[in-house]
Structure of Histidine triad (HIT) family protein:
Amino acid sequence: MAEDCIFCRIVAGDIPGRIVAETDHAVAFLDANPLAPGHTLVVPREHYARLDEIPSDEAADLFGAVHDITDSVEAAVDADAVSIGINDGEAAGQEVPHTHVHLVPRFEGDGGGPFHAINPNSEQPSDAELDEIADAIRDA
Ligand code: 5GP
Ligand code: ZN
């Protein structure tokens, strides 16, 4: 546990968190500043700042929890869909350095847009550039 981490303190029960589900390695609780009713965060119990720091068995449990909880979140607020995402790193908008998966309920016509709204003016890469990037990811 990181003493100065707000999510570690919620997981530990030190501060109130509106926890909605728990598994061996994951805890889900309501976001304090929701983007929509039912906005839920799913976090690993242990303190890991970035996704790649989570051991694979704990990551599997985390994403298993995401899989199992999403339906309940959608149903509880009578939503039409759910946007699921991680701001993985500061440049991606991560403000709390304890990895968390956002489950944001979505409603027809809510105007929130898809993930493509992150960078609507991105340039289409050439086939060669796509090949190069795919190679780089495979190599890494
Ligand atoms: P990030 O920008 O790091 O991906 O998202 C952090 C999220 O944590 C935000 O949606 C924010 O509303 C939420 N948050 C920040 N502080 C607290 C808190 O003390 N309790 C809860 N439940 N959520 C918080
Ligand atoms: Zn933490």
In short: The first helix runs from residue 6 to 12. The domain at 6-139 is CATH 3.30.428.10 (HIT family, subunit A). Residues 6, 17, 29-33, 87, 93-96 surround guanosine-5'-monophosphate (ligand 1) (CB under 6 Å). The chain is about 30% helix and 20% strand.
